[in-house]
Design goal:
The chain is mostly helical. It has helices at residues 11-29, 32-48, 59-98, 108-122, 125-136, 141-148, 152-176. It has 2 domains: 6-73, Rna Polymerase Sigma Factor, Chain: A, CATH 1.10.1740; 103-176, Winged helix-like DNA-binding domain superfamily/Winged helix DNA-binding domain (Arc Repressor Mutant, subunit A, Orthogonal Bundle), CATH 1.10.10.
Length: 177
């Protein structure tokens, strides 16, 4: 039987925690819609597991723990596809450098590599450094975070955003040429 006071689970009682969770999710994802979804999912998981909450303990801390797990799952899911894009760009660049004589006559790969180089040059120094560590040296997010004195979450979010920026820039340059 659940013995905690039911009033902590009312919408009004959880509103303060919801706002804090939303700020946490927004800071981590940079996307309001995603942050709202993750916040809602966090509260649903908390409510469904309310029997595990120990009355008299820190409800906010318990909710933030659930939120951390939700963010971890979110970034693991998000990282699967974008990492493949980043790896594909790395492979393309490496292949082009090693096999210039095998490139097709239409020069598509060369144009793409040129676009990638120009897009990278437009990035700030810290962004280029993060990408160099993550993809050039193939370091994990934890090691990149340690070297750059960032959180792992920050490295993951920045890497995801940088890949998206580079892809958009490359596509734009390719369309213009």
């Amino acid at each position: 039987m659940n013995s905690e006071p039911t009033d902590i689970w009312t919408q009004e009682a959880l509103e303060t925690h919801r706002r804090g969770l939303l700020r946490q999710m927004l800071a981590a994802t940079g996307n309001l819609a995603t942050a709202e979804d993750l916040t809602q999912d966090t509260l649903v998981v908390a409510y469904n597991n309310r029997h595990k909450f120990m009355p008299g303990t820190n409800l906010g801390g318990w909710l933030r723990g659930i939120a951390r797990n939700m963010l971890k799952r979110h970034f693991e899911k998000q990282a699967r596809e974008p990492v493949l894009i980043g790896e594909a760009l790395d492979i393309l660049e490496q292949t082009a450098a090693e096999n210039e004589d095998r490139m097709t006559d239409d020069g598509w790969h060369e144009h793409r590599l040129s676009a990638l180089a120009k897009c990278r040059a437009e990035l700030g120094e810290k962004a280029r450094q993060l990408l160099a560590l993550r993809y050039g040296k193939r370091l994990g997010a934890r090691e990149v975070a340690r070297r750059l004195r960032l959180t792992v979450t920050s490295v993951n979010v920045q890497t995801f955003r940088l890949r998206a920026v580079l892809m958009a820039c490359i596509e734009k340059r390719m369309a213009l040429s």
